[in-house]
Design goal:
The complex is a heterodimer of chains A (about 240) and B (about 325).
Chain A lengths: L10 E8 L3 E8 L4 E5 L6 H8 L6 E6 L2 E2 L5 H7 E4 L11 H6 L12 H7 L15 H14 L4 E4 L8 H16 L3 E5 L3 H4 L4 E6 L2 E6 L1 H4 L2 H8 L15
Parallel strand pairs in A: 3-8, 3-9, 6-7, 7-8
Antiparallel strand pairs in A: 1-2, 1-4, 4-5, 9-10
Chain B lengths: L4 H24 L7 H8 L4 H36 L6 H4 L1 H14 L9 H21 L5 H26 L2 H13 L7 H7 L1 H9 L3 H7 L3 H6 L4 H23 L5 H13 L3 H25 L5 H20 L1
Helix pairs in contact in B: 1-15, 2-3, 3-9, 3-13, 3-14, 3-15, 5-6, 5-7, 5-13, 6-7, 6-13, 7-8, 9-13, 10-13, 11-15, 14-15, 15-16
Chain lengths: ~240, ~325
Amino acid sequence: MDAATPGVKALDLVGVSVPDRLHEVSLALAPGTLAGLVGPNGSGKSTLLQIAAGLLPGGGSVRWGGRPLGEIPMIDRGRGAAWVPQEAQFEFGFTVRSVVAQGRYAHGDDERGVEEILARLGLTGLADRPVNRLSGGERHRVLLARALATGAPLQLWDEPLAALDVRHALEVLVLAGEIKRAGRTLLLSLHDLRLAHRLDAVIVLHEGRLRAAGPPATVLTSALLREVFGVRAEIAPGLVLKLP
Amino acid sequence: MTPSPWVSRAAPPVALLLLAGLMVAALGVGDLRLGPARIWAGLWHHDELAATILWQIRLPRLLVAMLVGAALAASGLVMQAYFRNSLASPGLLGVSSGGAAGAVVAIGAGWVSHSLLVLPAAAIAGALIATGAVLILARRGTSTERLLLAGVALNALLGAVTTYVLSNVTLSYERNAQILFWLLGGLEDRTWEHGAIALPILGAAALLWPLGRPMDLLSLGALEAQSLGVDVRRLRRRLLALATVLTALATAVAGNVGFVGLIVPHVLRLLVGPEHRRLVPLSLIGGAAFVVACDLLGRAAGGLRVGIVTSLVGGPFFLWMLRRRA
């Protein structure tokens, strides 16, 4: 079985739990889905992404493309899913190009597609600069580029937009659309609920539990926002930002 | 600053040439100076006086100096990647002190007379205990403050163990020399036996050689490396075992020689960049060259112990690094 087989989920979580952080969360994403993970601080978004990426041990089952994670050798996992951490800290001064090329580790370091991805993320001009000298937003784009370089059909990004200015954030959403159209699956956590409205699906976590999941228009209701985030939602005309 | 590709390419041959030059100097310099021609004659026993000096004194000392330098530099490089902190090193973390304490306890208990293997085994055991302590402390984070403070405590504690045991077991007239040797390191009176004890360093270096690429990924984050396909748990176990054994073997034959594992990888990183496929071989060569050079300096200065020289060079260097980070 693989992700191309009809009905097979790109990501399938059943009852995943981590003591005190995540309680019996189940969700499934079909290939070609662009899904957002929202919830207040401490609701378990990062934990869920790390479990989904196979980086954190926990109860329950994780499957990628129908295959239980436990059956996938470590090196194959590097091709199966890519994870982008929330923090982009680098101790050593690897060049941007070499960090992005690390995405090809599980492919025998073939460096295929690295230059194209650098160009796609506007990093070509920075390619020879050490990553520990970049701004926070630039470092995040390097991590996104490395995740894309893996070519993995499942992309798990932890708050990829938080460190980016509005233009780069919109560009990442465009990129997310391309990833989805290529039949790949992207689950990203985010705080901006207005941006979440542009995704296929949102998954709402609250206090480590799955509170709701589905199309944003049906999930992000005033009642739910009030209950989960403690805010009052209003639809009002205001500043709308788009790429030129 | 990004290192230029030209420097990166030139570094390995230049380092080898430098090491070769230092080797000739180390064999030539001493109470009886030997030129290259006499060294050559001595090596082949065409000059019996030179042969005696070389084969009995200078060659074993040179071999031990090179192995110790290579081991400490490689060990420092591994620890820096492991802890993602360029200030981590066997000396600062207390692993060298653990090796020295282990060796001294074995000497004090009289076990070393049983077998040539006892001394390195005891040093490895001592270094493992120190590594274990660092790991427990590092579980809550590997910030510079945390690692350095842990190292301060471990160094003081293990230094006290070393001094205490030596105070009780050595005769008074050689007590101070022994304590100095184990706490500050030295290469005096090294024999082929010490060279033999340190020889497994070559094996450990060979095992480290292919781990350069995964070390790159690990040095930018354990979870990140795992998500890219590195078997992080296995890699970390191997790296820690290799770093500990390398440090312990070096310490077993030369005492606690400081700062090599800090300086050599750092300078090389400035020269050729952070990629470990380059840094692993260069650290081995560079570490050997650095310790041989420090030993030469110490001998030229009238018999300063090599550990004193490395510390005199390394102490200010370390303070400079700390200041640069702040």
